[in-house]
What does this fold into?
Amino acid sequence: MARPDCAQPPFVPSEVEGRDRNPLRIRPSTSLGNSVRWLAFLLLAMFAVPVAAQDSLPPAPYAYKQLEDPAKEKAAQDLMMTLRCLTCQSQSIADSDAPMAGDMRNQVRQRIARGEDPEAIRAWLIERYGDWVSYEPRVTTMTWPLFAAPVVLLLLAVVIVRKRFTRARAQGGKS
Amino acid sequence: MKHWAIWLPLALFGLLFAVFASGLIAPGDRTIASQMIGKPLPDFDLPQAVPDRPALAKADFTTGKPKLLNVFASWCVPCIAEAPVLAELARAGVEIDGVAIRDRTADVQAFLARNGNPYTRIGRDDVSKIQFDLGSSGVPETFVINGKGIITYQHIGEIRADQVPMILQKLKEAQ
It folds into this structure.
């Protein structure tokens, strides 16, 4: 599906000059000419824009602006670190520069500023996008083995170690 | 060491290889379906996007007639491909209401002038709020809303020409 994707860094070809069609031909360009061209390319690259479609609107008010209250900003930041960006699916919204992640940060900060509980905001998003949107796994009928496995393994380890120690002690007692 | 145990590393390698290969050959579906299907449209009231089309609010979807709610943007490339298909749906008598995401009036006007205007109403959303309300994760997306304001279907990505009968069917089902 072709969709405006994550904000990608502009594509910079590693090789600026095209290869010569005839490698035997002596090229007129000097090393000075090369560096001038290279400089010109770098200058151009400064103004390169990503090919992926991006909107031209400025970011939402609180996409890149912190809340005035440090405690509230901290709460917002903690929450944003555990919310998944919808367009850059392996990033949190705190990490992503995608416009939609900016809009999501704006939502989170404005809701926190209004005094909403961070977990209520998480629940609001899960209600719309499913568990997928949160990086904090919940205990559900599908995810409980995730939480049970460490406990089971630990118990298993205790049993095995106990057996070994008691055996060793028994043998030690015999001899 | 037991005889069969020497094959264990190879078996483990084979297993991991199969897991990674299957992930590479057939990557999982990365689309995020909205959890809002079957739920009422959240409250919203968006300003006008262009002067010649009225603004859009939730009340426009509780008139008794099923409608399409199309999320689009002038900067969205697949939306250009979708425009003639939406026009075809409009010709078939479907009422399509649009929301322009993160867009300027002049840009929307130019987009509609070039690609046609199938919309009855167009709202403007500069902070993607409607997308979070709908559980939508990108543009374009189209929602079927029944006459009582309940979301009955979500179409992710552009509607292709061969999907028109399916969309008409979804609208009929929503009646």
User: Anything to note?
Assistant: Strands of chain B lie at 45-46, 56-57, 67-72, 96-101, 119-125, 141-145, 151-156. Residues 45-174 of chain B form a domain with the Glutaredoxin fold (CATH 3.40.30.10). The longest strand of chain B covers residues 119-125. The mean pLDDT of chain B is 93.
